[in-house]
Amino acid sequence: MAATATTKDATGTVLSAIILILVAVLAFSIRLFSVIKYESVIHEFDPYFNYRVTQYLSKNGVYDFWNWFDDRTWYPLGRVIGGTVYPGLTLTAGTMWWIFNSLNIPLSVETVCVFTAPIFSANAAWATYLLTKEVKGIGAGLTAAALIAMVPSYISRSVAGSYDNEAVAIFALVFTFYLYIKTLNTGSLFYATLNALAYFYMVCSWGGYTFIINLIPMHVLLCIITGRYSSRLYIAYAPLVVLGTLLAALVPVVGFNAVMTSEHFGSFLVFIILNVVALGHYIKRTVSAKMFKVAITLVISFGMVVSVALAAILVASVAASPTKGWSGRSLSLLDPTYASKYIPIIASVSEHQPPTWPSYFMDINVLAFLVPAGIIACFLPLSDASSFLVLYIVTSVYFSGVMVRLMLVLAPAACILSGIALSEAFAVLTRSIKFKQDKSEVLMDESNNGSKTSQPEKDKEIVRERPSKKSRRMEKENVEKVLEKKEVKQWSLLLPVEASAVGILLLIVLGSFYVVHCVWAAAEAYSAPSIVLSSHTPEGVHVFDDFREAYAWLSHNTDIDDKVASWWDYGYQTTAMANRTVIVDNNTWNNTHIATVGTAMSSPERQAWEIFQSLDVKYVFVVFGGLVGYPSDDINKFLWMVRIGGGVFPHIKEPDYLRDGQYRIDSQATPTMLNSLMYKLSYYRFTEADGKGFDRVRRTEIGKKYFKLTHFEEVFTTHHWMVRIYKLKPPKNRLRGKNKKRSKSSSKGGKSSSWKKQEKRNPWH
């Protein structure tokens, strides 16, 4: 029997390893549609900055990376890269590039960056397996790993080319949770140390590390309140707070924020409470019951005094801050209306908007229906580990409902709970079939054994003295009682064989539907890079490569020191692809600087020219989708420019750009809107493109069709009119034109009254 059990365990281990390898291959390969359908290219906006930083790291080394001052961003302020970036992604990709090249595998930095996210998606699947296995066993772990390998919410941030912080952060998040649960189950100081190191890697990788340092204290506090304190809980939490906080403070972008911001205060408060409870349990074991009451009173009193003193110190340290030590994004999560009221730059980002109900079905699909079953399974029975999963899913559901970007945090929790639900469901459904089969085999064996009994043996049995009828009845009753006690637990969870077969079939159909949806989402919804667009027409697929066309033009037709202005969305791409200095970019650290650009775009042409001149800007470009129907253009973002600009410069008022509360660009648009720089740069010569000035995004004819530019000149428009580049006219050229008019006026008998007015208004005269 022992040999059979050992063989069975070995077979299970090998089978689990094979399944995990296949899951890793699946997680990697399903994210390659973007490379297969398009090409190996960096996606979106932020990844271009990360790619540029990784290039600098691989070329100049770590020391120069920490001390790099980038003068090509946020002109004229610049940016200290080493102190303002989460270095985890960059250091990870840079290390991978160095390893490959050390092994004589000549991969470019761009190739490593493109495939970093698919590689770490496989790691995230393995981490999910470990976490779920630690809570509910191997079957649930394998199921959860397979689910997270395909879940669309995670694919959206980890396709090949999506070189953003979340590419490695989700793995770090899940792995940190696994090591916490592992420490909680084993009480091992070794795993507690690894947990602090994993938390350090998470801090290096993503600002979402604050979710960890708040969720784990919440779980520790829950265990204390429900009377589940143990030495294992102390070992799991104390090293994380002490060692993890010290390591987090070493990351330049975090620094003293690890101990000075309100996002971290809760972990310190729970740490004090945990030490008070631990001291109380120690005293209870060492003193008598009478002395315990006196001692515990002193301990609680001392703990309250320390807590109040610490709270007073922390409150005093953040009292001067208008946000009381909270970051703008944290306040937006706690109060969903905060950003729209006070920080429009945060509210303007599409991924910071709350999701719609269809978003949940798109991003987690059928998992939304399996999660409640997984929560119920966590209560059968409830343990410290399973209670953590329940707390994880509840908090992640809330945060995902506030900000669509945090659907990414919900995805691992949904996969884990759904994996548990599917595993438990398959266990119940297959148990009845297995039990029925085993029972049939036992009856068959008894029948065969009875028929194989030899005649002499039968004669001996007849000769033997038979027990009395009463003793036979008592023996039968005893056996039935034993069998009933042994099998009552199994029978309570058994279903009819037919119902079990139908249930298994339905689960397979449900899983097939999930797989089809995930493959479709990976191939169609999330594989297209924002830098290269495509549309399906009856003639076939039409590709729009206007962005790279515009950046190539800037790179080849402008001076290396020229400054380029645009809305902040395109700053990272302009710096990385055109290698030109930008005024603002996607870091959005200086709201006043962004408001200045927003004010320029919202102002009339001359005032905008003066603002850009003061910033030493030579070229301005806008993104326009009115000709081809591209909805994410600057006209659709224009009201956010107005709001952000108006938040700093009060003369910019949003109602001036609205007609009866409606945003319009047709003949009913307000004069302020029609005369704004954004309107003019977008619709200049638009009637020459389609003949009548019909905007396909807004589905209306524009209000002001024929106008000329006096302070800007068009220098390049891409093939599909998606990017339009303008050059600021220098002051001397404009004055030369005025001088010609003056010479004509003087030849007729002196200066005209109109020229005198222009001369007074001209600051450059």
Automatic annotation (TrEMBL):
It is a multi-pass membrane protein. Keywords: Endoplasmic reticulum, Glycoprotein, Glycosyltransferase, Magnesium, Manganese, Membrane, Metal-binding, Transferase, Transmembrane, Transmembrane helix. InterPro entries: Oligo_trans_STT3 (IPR003674), STT3-PglB_core (IPR048999), STT3_N (IPR048307). The chain crosses the membrane at residues 12-33, 80-100, 112-131, 137-155, 167-192, 198-222, 234-259, 265-283, 295-320, 360-380, 387-404, 410-429, 493-516. Residues 444-476, 732-765 are annotated as: Disordered. It catalyses: a di-trans,poly-cis-dolichyl diphosphooligosaccharide + L-asparaginyl-[protein] = N(4)-(oligosaccharide-(1->4)-N-acetyl-beta-D-glucosaminyl-(1->4)-N-acetyl-beta-D-glucosaminyl)-L-asparaginyl-[protein] + a di-trans,poly-cis-dolichyl diphosphate + H(+). It comes from the Eukaryota. Its EC number is 2.4.99.18. One of its GO terms (cellular component) is endoplasmic reticulum membrane. Its cofactor is Mg(2+); Mn(2+). Residues 455-476, 756-765 have a biased composition (Basic and acidic residues). Residues 14-417 form the Oligosaccharyl transferase STT3 N-terminal domain. Pathway: Protein modification; protein glycosylation. One of its GO terms (molecular function) is dolichyl-diphosphooligosaccharide-protein glycotransferase activity. Residues 746-755 have a biased composition (Low complexity). Coiled coil: none annotated. Residues 561-620 form the STT3/PglB/AglB core domain. Residues 732-745 have a biased composition (Basic residues). It is found in: Endoplasmic reticulum membrane. It holds the Pfam family STT3-PglB_core. Component of the oligosaccharyltransferase (OST) complex. Belongs to the STT3 family. This is dolichyl-diphosphooligosaccharide--protein glycotransferase. It comes from Araucaria cunninghamii.
